TrEMBL record:
InterPro entries, A to Z: RNA_pol_sigma_r2, RNA_pol_sigma_r3/r4-like
Signal peptide: none
Protein name as it appears in the record: Sigma-70 family RNA polymerase sigma factor
Organism: Macrococcus lamae
SUPFAM superfamilies per record: Sigma2 domain of RNA polymerase sigma factors, Sigma3 and sigma4 domains of RNA polymerase sigma factors
Superkingdom in the source lineage: Bacteria
Example of a GO MF term: DNA-binding transcription factor activity
GO biological process: DNA-templated transcription initiation
Length: 163
């Protein structure tokens, strides 16, 4: 029975996902929608709702909306660090990161601090670096603090406050 429902309502799932512009986790949302479709098929009672297509559409639509809300709430609650870019703008005359590399800024940093610096220059955030490296965000923050201290001490840079 589910295979029939899947064939019949698969385009509807795609339509809903595209309508809400889900691109990043498209496959995951699609799988969740298929599971929800199976649940709808198990609980559907034609005596209570005569228009099956509209019933399925509304159930899937509101399920996707609820799932998006859950994910947004989860991200807001479990966001470890604010969404600011790690490498702050430096108060220096040239304000270019390329020259920092050319002058050998990373030579004074240990491997971990250099790893943080390289990711930060590219624009990654603390939680992303933590995920890439398999370390905790507090460890990444420690690398950042030590790297900043060395850069400030050795190259007379000052980092803007709050970053």
């Amino acid at each position: 029975m589910f295979e029939e429902w899947k064939v019949k309502y698969e385009r509807m799932i795609y339509h809903i996902l595209h309508h809400y512009q889900i691109k990043y986790d498209f496959d995951e949302y699609y799988q969740l929608a298929l599971i929800k479709l199976w649940q709808i098929g198990e609980t559907y009672d034609p005596a209570k709702c005569t228009n099956k297509d509209q019933f399925v559409y509304l159930k899937l639509k509101f399920f996707i909306i609820d799932e998006m809300r859950k994910r947004i709430k989860y991200q807001q609650r479990h966001q470890i660090v604010a969404d600011d870019v790690l490498i702050p703008l430096m108060d220096c005359e040239d304000n270019t990161y390329a020259e920092l590399f050319l002058e050998g800024v990373t030579d004074d940093l240990n491997d971990e601090e250099r790893l943080w610096f390289n990711y930060a220059v590219i624009g990654y955030k603390i939680n992303e670096i933590a995920e890439f490296t398999g370390n905790s965000p507090s460890t990444i923050k420690r690398w950042r603090r030590r790297a900043r201290e060395k850069i400030c001490k050795n190259y007379n840079f000052t980092f803007k406050s709050g970053l």
